[in-house]
Every structure is written in C-alpha cells, then in structure tokens.
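WARN retry 2 of 3 for item q-0093 after timeout on previous attempt; input resubmitted unchanged.
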Amino acid sequence: MTDQMDRLLSSLIDQVDPAETEELLFRLIEIESHQEAAGHEKEITSFIKEYLERCGIDVELQEVTEGRANLIALIKGNGTGPSLVLNGHMDTVPPYEMQEPFSPRTDQDRIYGRGSVDMKGALAAMIHVLVGLKRSEVSLKGDVIFAATIGEENYSPGAYHLVNSGFQADYAIVGEPTGMKVGIAHKGVVWGEAQFEGRSVHGSVPEKGINAIYRASRWIEQIQNAYIPELKKRNHPVLGQPTINIGEIEGGTRPVIVPNQCKVRFERRLIPGENGNDVIRELQALVDQLAENDPDLKGTVSEMPVFHGVPHGPLEADPGSPLVKGLCAGYQNEFDQSIEPEGLQFWTDGALLSMIPGIQTVVCGPGSIEQAHSNEEYIEQGQLHAAYRIYMDAVSQLCL
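OK item q-0093 returned
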C-alpha cells in the first residue's frame, strides 16, 4: 500500500469513532429480532433504515414475505471499479436461557447480549463503513453495498430472495464470526429421509410379513460398508471429506406387530462439486441395488422440506482473488500476524450469495462462532473495531 493510500485509509477509518460503533451495537442488541418477536425483524429493519437515511445514505427495502424485508443501502461509485457487498442477517436466535439478553452490557473488553456476535457486531461495523464513506465524501470507482437480510436462522429466505431478485455484485463479504480470518469454503447440507415399506402381520408369524425395519437396516449397512468408504475417497483441500449421519429412525407400532413402515432420516454434508439432487440419487441407487436381489424391498429416498426449497449448497471462493488477498493483508496489518484462507465448519448465507454469476464470496466477521447461540453470547470490543477497519481496508483496495 502506498503512503498516499495509507493516509486515505486512515482518513476513512477516522470518520467513525469507535464509541459510535459500540453505541450502535448496543441499540441493535436492544431490538428483538428473533422468530418469537412480534414482527420478527421488522423493528430492526426500520431502525437501520432510519439510521442510514439520517446519514444521507440511499436505502431500499426488498419485501421477502409479508411484513419482512431485506434492506439494501448503497454508496455509489462511478462504474469504473468492481462492486463490493457487505452482507449480514438481521435475525437472531431466541433468548433461550440467556439472562437479560436485550440489555447489552460491557464487562472488561466484552459486549454481552443476544446477537452481539451472531451477527449484530458485524452489522454495526458494516453500517459504519458506509457511514464513514459518506462522511468522507470520497470518490469511489466501484459501488459499496450493504445488504442486510432476513431469516438466516430459519432456512434463509432473505438471502435466497436477494439472489433471485437480479442483485449483482463482483465481491461479497458475509460477516459471520470467524475471528476476522478469511473463510473461503464451507460444506453444504442436505436433510433427507428414506422410507421403507413392509407388510404387517402378527408377531407370532413374522415369516408371513415383510419387516420394514429389517429392510431399512440393510440399507443402513450399505451406507456403512459401501457408501461411507466411497465418500472418504472424495476430498477437498480445505474441507476434507463429505459426511453422512443417520440421525433418526422411526418404525413400527408395537413389539407384537411386524412393522409395515420404517423411516430413516439423515444429514449429508456436501463439499464443493456436490449437490443435493445427486446425493438423493446416490442414496436411492443403494436402495435399488438391494431391491435387485430382494423384490419385496421397497424404499424411496427424498429430501426433507426443512429448508423450504432454499438450497443449502457448499461455498467455495478462489483463494487467489483480490478480495481474499486483500482481507488476508488487512488481517496482517491489524493483528501483525499472517494467515492463510481457510475452510469453515458451519453453513452460511455465503453459499447463496455465491450463486450470483461472477461473484467471489467469502466469510469474514468479528468474534467467535463458539459464542453464537450461547447463553453467554458476547463479542470482544477489539474484534468489533477490527472488523470496521478491515472492512474499510477492503473497500479501499477494491473500490477506490
């Protein structure tokens, strides 16, 4: 970075006092935006809209479902540079057993409250990037966009709607908590169900019936003996192998009756290059192979509707992209420590944003994922302020 660019970045960062960002985060935490709250994200959407508009920033609401809308804010460039979107979700999980979840407090260097790390801390930092750019009146080459979406904690209708609305950008940062390290990949997820049919008879003459549980168990054995070894041959450089977990079995009515049905529910984690439809076909093929030697074996594998049609595929970004390199450099400048881009163990809306043609999407946000959803949820003040500075650094490298 040249001395001139360094001075410009410092000037941009200085536009927002750290105390402002903490104050904004406190206000965001105070607003309930979980699935049990009246209006879900409605109040926080209105608050962010009014906050940005008071700062002179253009805001658009994008209705997703009745009464629930994504928020899109824009600092426009002159069109000669790439566009960068800063994305975060406005919803949180419910308070559960957290004490005073919506009364934020600071204890030593931690800010406690529901949503502090997942992910209102990132929202506060991203909002203030736009505010800082607006205050500076700097001339941008590329657009800087803040896209706050609904419903990530419940199947992600907001991000999916955004992607299908014709939204375009060249780069995207999703602010889920990574300790500001750069996540370039994560696995996708499919929940599925295999349903096996049998024929009920009295338990005293089981040979006259067809035991659906026995048929299901043979399929499970095939998964253990043939399918899982095959999955272990598939490998991603930062994510490792795909996995499958049989998590639930339901079948039969009474011990004295041969069961005429059995349902087996599973979760399959996908690496880049895999998709849910292929997974269902692979697992159905195991059923069909068994049926070749057992005409009485009838089973159907299907995807469960838990995600309401929203695909939960994997994420993969180019580790050599300017965004990845810029964020890694920003991390080193901030923490005086070099890092390499890494894979993440949790799913994010980044997988959906990566469906936008031509976009490079990474996950990079303040705080630790270990604190998300916990009854002691917090974000470190240092992480909050580092996020603002690193995001502004990324803007300066890509859009100035």
